[in-house]
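I am going through a labmate's work and have reached the protein record below. What it holds is a sequence and that sequence's fold in token form. Please read both lines and tell me whether the tokens look consistent with the sequence. Do not assume that whoever made the record got everything right. Thanks in advance; the entry in question is below.
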Amino acid sequence: MKAVVLREFGDAGRLVVENVPMPQPQAGEVRVKVAAAGLNFTEILQRRGPSNYPLPRILGTEFAGTVDALGEGVNDFQVGDRVTTQAGTSAYAEYAVAPSSRLIRVPSVISFDQAVAVTLQGMTAHYLAFSAYPLKWGDTALIHAAAGGVGQILVQLAKLCGADVIATVSTPEKEKLVKGLGADAVINYTQSDFLTEVKRITNGRGVSVVYDSVGRDTFLKGLDCLRPRGMMVLYGSSSGPVAPVDPQLLSGKGSLFLTRPTLASYVAVHSELVQRANDLFDWIISGELKIRVDRKFKLEEAAQAHEYMEQRKTMGKVVLIP
């Protein structure tokens, strides 16, 4: 089969398509013929290195497609089933494997592009809005990187919860996009200071919660956007890791709460994984949730796809199509 192989750390040009042996599902695993593989910034960081990941390797954990082969002991799926997962291995390929316990059935009316666009990013937005800080009517949420894959879905889920949304973006095009998704206010942080704008919009009160996937560039200023007893939900670090924080800082800024969640902790139980995914599928089918697949790249264009993401041009999900 064809796969994108990383043999040495470095720039996007290190991603090369090669012919490799087809993976064989082990006990409890399922092999999937990949129809769409989701790209995530984590893989760019892994590609750059250095890291403890052994090379050569095939990047990616998120893919959707049809079941092609079953490992020993798998009886809850059949060949031909439409599935998706955020916890597979070697997704940048024509075939990939995943534990059957991490697979989710995809309704026939949901395209594989849509499925892979909500598998990791959609369920991330789901746990952020419903579990990490359960939004409710009367809350005001500040959502950074609102035009990204998680951000777009999170804006819509926050509105479903009845919250007011203040979103940050970097371009006029992204501002228009996020307004169309229901954001109550949008701040272009390249033109305005987001802290000043948040204080103005909230009449000095601040927001109930900050959802921050940016990290180093926004974290400390984000704490100042919170009202007393507000919560900082730091779930990413696209600008770099946040420096260690003295807990007294949270005290001095109004008895704030800080959490650094990961999706794995919120879908560890299979029933919770399925429930989050089915909620998202139901909202797509009903029209309450719009999913934007920003760009599709061929498997041979994986390097260009990484470069596109690194240039921060994305306005939705980036997908590889084997």
About this structure: The radius of gyration is 20 Å. The chain has two domains: 2-106+292-321, 122-264. The chain has a mean pLDDT of 96.
